[in-house]
């Protein structure tokens, strides 16, 4: 099996290197950016392709590892070479785009799939470390998915076979778990700054706390990992927080996250209906209403 890549970004280059170190023949890279293609080819001891025809001819599997916006264009360009597409497998690595974007490349002789790594890869070095520990979601033709399984197994990753999920929502979940975690960290630093905490001197002060929380989520699950004032039904502490947050935008963000935290705490069975509605009233910025009955 020879695998060629269209696109020479971090994920494609890292995946190619890991495969090359585990017995898979990497044919080479085609990229708009010739220098990127050269670097990736050198790193993986493979070739630099100058045309779509060349990458198709020299590969059994073609993985499109460009940014999402470029995938339809790449598919269109590949589909122009129908006379040499037989017995080829095509894949893209996007989490948000569905399988159908590859349909112009599919017929009774060709196979398509989506192979998305559930991982953040800011650099090749981090990707080389993290991809073997990660899940890959696979969706597509049976034969293509079998190839996807082999690819993931070769790099010691784990796979999940999917069928007809709402990919934009799946990808949104990945974004929240990764990108919004970074935003949440920034939110915490903004509150430290507002508090007068010398966070410039201790930029990693919250990291052990975050790591401990992730460890608890992994070991106990999301609901049972929840601790803190809302989980305890500590109305006074939540009130103190809100009274001291001066930035309206940060206050609204605190309230929005607090409402979701409140639902988790209620699911956990942390308190009764009365306490739930008292906290809900605070987080909504109004008076609590204890006359309702909470139903979930």
Automatic annotation (TrEMBL):
<feature type="domain" description="DUF2520">
    <location>
        <begin position="135"/>
        <end position="259"/>
    </location>
</feature>
<dbReference type="InterPro" id="IPR008927">
    <property type="entry name" value="6-PGluconate_DH-like_C_sf"/>
</dbReference>
<dbReference type="InterPro" id="IPR037108">
    <property type="entry name" value="TM1727-like_C_sf"/>
</dbReference>
<dbReference type="InterPro" id="IPR019665">
    <property type="entry name" value="OxRdtase/DH_put_Rossmann_dom"/>
</dbReference>
<dbReference type="Pfam" id="PF10728">
    <property type="entry name" value="DUF2520"/>
</dbReference>
<feature type="domain" description="Putative oxidoreductase/dehydrogenase Rossmann-like">
    <location>
        <begin position="2"/>
        <end position="117"/>
    </location>
</feature>
<dbReference type="InterPro" id="IPR018931">
    <property type="entry name" value="DUF2520"/>
</dbReference>
<protein>
    <submittedName>
        <fullName>Uncharacterized protein</fullName>
    </submittedName>
</protein>
<dbReference type="Pfam" id="PF10727">
    <property type="entry name" value="Rossmann-like"/>
</dbReference>
<dbReference type="InterPro" id="IPR036291">
    <property type="entry name" value="NAD(P)-bd_dom_sf"/>
</dbReference>
